[in-house]
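Morning. Coffee machine broken again, so started the prediction first thing and wrote up yesterday's gels while waiting. Chain of 377 residues, entered below exactly as on the submission form.
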Amino acid sequence: MTTASRASLDSSSVAANASRRRLLNEKRLQQRRQTIDEHVRALQRGVPMAEKPWWLAGTDAGLREQKHRYALAAEILRQRQELNACRRSSKRKPADKVLVSPADPEAALARDKEEVFRPLYTLQLLRDLDSPLIFAHTVLAQNNDNGVLGPMIERMVDSVGVKLKDLLVDSGYVSMRHLEFCATAGITLYGPCQENDFSVANGKKAQSNQHTELPKNAFNWLAEEQVYQCPEGHRLEFDGTQTQQRTEHRITLSLYRCPPEHCQACPRQSACTRTPKKGRTVSRMENEQLLDALRERMRTAEAKALYRLRSRTVELNFADLKEHRGLRRFHGRGRRRVTAEVGASVLTHNLLAVEAHPRWLARTGATEKLLPIARAA
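Came back before lunch.
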């Protein structure tokens, strides 16, 4: 059916089987756990309590299951509190605003594409470009695509036994970590760099720090000299390094600074920097040449023609799963169950594709392609 050399990777959020209006912070969760313990002890003594909250299970087995689920919610909330404490002060939430869903504690809390804040999971699909087959899938309790590309490729290699040559992704997957993985694995990545369909709508400046009108891509990198050149022709010399904490790893940045005397006399001063006395700085990540190569590749006509296949493949799979398979909201709770639900849907899709393939070959007059498949079987 396919050489399995080209694929498209994409993700979509799916609502968890939990209410978006009944989320708990640490204080309210602790109060509920105390109430559950009191009712469990009362049932063990054979003296059921008169007043019972609406959310409390009515049977002994239900209370025990609820106690286990709320203990899991407390552990997950503790982990979220630790992650929140590690964030920068500008990104950190108040402790009472860190929440968890008691119905499905494992689900991430984030806004979906309809801007509804709710418990959800992120579904990842790796779809072939040359056939309807889905090579790999996974369900994650996160609302981003960080660190996803490598494990998805490994899943495909384990199940299909073939390594990709070309991979199409959206801007959420274009990160230095993913580019380094593809370079090591010999995979050519295609995707927009630091831009997406929502950038203009949100009023964001592509590849800028949101404070200046002159973005980083206006500066020319001179690889032989290892310096940047500004639009006015001045050199930005190396000025030191710094590290930044990303979601799951740290990156090293090299800083390049323009001499202050040039910035103070520059006609583009107001659009370039708010601190001309210090000089404009531009940072460069380690291995950023991989990012430069991606930008150059995406400017070619061949890359643009290939990238158009993405909307005709994996995005159609999400539309089919949500519209025809009822996957707008999961029916089970917990990552294990929602993964099984997605697995059943993907298996159904692939079986239907394989079943229809001989008819397609006969209709197109390519029945001789069935012989290698029959011999392999």
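Residues 6-16+109-200+294-371 form a domain with the Nucleotidyltransferase; domain 5 fold (CATH 3.30.420.10). Going to sketch it on the whiteboard this afternoon.
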